[in-house]
Design a protein that fits this description.
Order of helices and strands: HHHHHHEHEH
CATH architecture of the largest domain: 3-Layer(aba) Sandwich
Number of helices: 8
Largest sheet: 2 strands, parallel
Helix content: 55-70%
Radius of gyration: 26 Å
Protein name: Serine aminopeptidase S33 domain-containing protein
Structural class: mainly alpha
CATH topology of the largest domain: Rossmann fold
Oligomer: single chain
Organism: Heterosigma akashiwo (Chromophytic alga)
Length: 200
């Protein structure tokens, strides 16, 4: 329902609301308890990421970075920057970007006011099989753009289809190998010498 109504909001009014929301979030972050901020971030993460943020080997360093940003009274941009750097630099997640071998498609809006384009580009550069699309005019709410959502679905379908084709090829190769091994085992039973001839 919110999305249906959002289509009827004039652009200047929507921009004003977003600007006000950013200002309000900055004010709230200035006085927020760092642990509450960490918990808020963890709630927006996957189960694995949240566990790493809360109890990972370097979770204390992530919390310290959030505390430092809150003490400096930075708005949302500073907190986002510090948190992303802290998480990446302390390896709070149980994996490294460089270890992810599957294809990854990164979309980022060039007008995103919450996560800098450079941060998204740096992450994509560390992913071995990543490609990145920068959406002109795209904001942090990029998935609300039907063009982007359509592109995400098309890309996901292509990746699933390619993965399925790879899986089918791998299964067929495995079946051929098993048939060959079974045939060789039967031949060995028929020829007790194991294919060796006298004098070898």
């Amino acid at each position: 329902m919110l999305l249906r109504r959002a289509k009827h909001v004039p652009t200047f009014l929507a921009a004003g609301v977003l600007h006000a929301a950013r200002w309000v979030s900055g004010q709230l972050l200035r006085g927020a308890e760092p642990e509450a901020l960490l918990e808020l971030v963890a709630e927006g993460c996957s189960v694995t990421e949240a566990r790493a943020l809360r109890r990972g080997p370097r979770a204390g360093r992530v919390a310290a970075a959030i505390r430092a940003a809150a003490r400096r009274g930075e708005g949302s941009q500073g907190v986002v920057d510090d948190m992303l750097l802290a998480v990446e630099n302390t390896h709070a997640f149980p994996f490294k970007y460089e270890e992810i071998r599957c294809p990854v498609k990164v979309w980022h809006g060039d007008q995103d006011q919450l996560v800098p384009l450079a941060t998204a580009a740096a992450m994509a550069a560390r992913l071995p099989a990543a490609t990145m699309t920068v959406q002109p005019g795209g904001t942090h709410s990029l998935l609300l753009d039907p063009r982007v959502t359509g592109a995400v679905f098309r890309c996901t379908r292509r990746l699933v289809d390619e993965g399925a084709a790879d899986a089918i090829r791998a299964r067929r190769a495995r079946q051929r190998r098993q048939r060959t091994e079974a045939l060789l085992a039967r031949l060995a039973l028929l020829d007790p010498s194991g294919g060796r001839h006298a004098g070898e």
